[in-house]
């Protein structure tokens, strides 16, 4: 191979890498190219650094206001991930205005789990291929680590097929936020520093600072949101009960439902994914569903898709069978 050919080959590799990073590479989630399933450690650097940044809590310390902000941001972003990224963008379980849709996409993106279109495309693919060899986060086929947080660090998962979000691609603001998904979390990080700086300057008695608010309000809160979300892909396909016979390993898990505001009723969801409600009974706590009903009362959402009677009856009969067998 001469020097000209070598230079051309290297230029082609660089061009391909740049296009991949910008989301221009054609996507085939079901291809047989096993090298695409390897973790890209360069892309994983920000993910790793965010986890390591949490250790800085040893230097910035703790204050009640910083912890309160971290908890509040966890709840707000988890709510948007579960309600809008999942039940709205992925399953269209209710309708809302374009403004609320855009605001939800922006707030969801501050959780640093990519844009709403990327998230919805991969989740729709998950339902199409749940726990088959093509499911990118199946514990059965990929193992717990890859199912939990390794899959999205691979070349295969970095981009998402736009054909799976044809219904959303007509909104330029959603496409923009998907392409520039780093903007919202960076803005949140800057806001956290500014909040801590202002509180330290005007309310020094609170004992916080700019960097303390960054570590607690952004880093720790985001990392906890990460792993609570990822637990549905991994733990909710391994631990819990399966009320319904589905073609996958989905499980209902009470503790995960509490942690994720209702997503833990995963077997229910895989049995009937179209509904805005995932806890089928009153004792199956589904906070996101309660919030959807609240937003409906406030006219923020409408056309909420409920459980049809046949699904409720089947769930009730199954629950009675479980009770009699125990």
Describe this protein's structure.
The relative contact order is 0.13. A two-stranded antiparallel sheet has the order 1-2. Helix content is 60%, strand content 1%. The protein has one domain (33-325). The protein has helices at residues 3-22, 41-53, 57-60, 64-90, 98-109, 116-128, 139-142, 144-150, 155-158, 172-179, 183-202, 210-234, 254-259, 266-271, 287-297, 309-325, and strands spanning 95-96, 301-302. The chain is mainly alpha-helical. Helix 4 (64-90) crosses helix 6 (116-128) and helix 4 packs parallel to helix 12 (210-234). The protein has 16 helices and 2 strands. The protein is globular. Mean pLDDT is 90; it is low at 17-25.
The biggest sheet, with number of strands, parallel, antiparallel or mixed sense and barrel status, is: 2 strands, antiparallel
Tell me what portion of residues adopts beta-strand conformation.
under 5%
How many domains is the backbone divided into?
A: 1
- DSSP summary, beta strand count: 2
Structural class of the helix and strand makeup? mainly alpha
What's the overall geometry?
A: globular
Evaluate the radius of gyration. 21 Å
Order of helices and strands: HHHHEHHHHHHHHHHHEH
How far apart the termini lie comes to 72 Å
Low-pLDDT stretches:
17-25
What count of helical segments does DSSP give? 16
Helix content: 55-70%
**Strand sequence of the main sheet, in spatial order?**
1-2
Mean pLDDT over the residues:
90
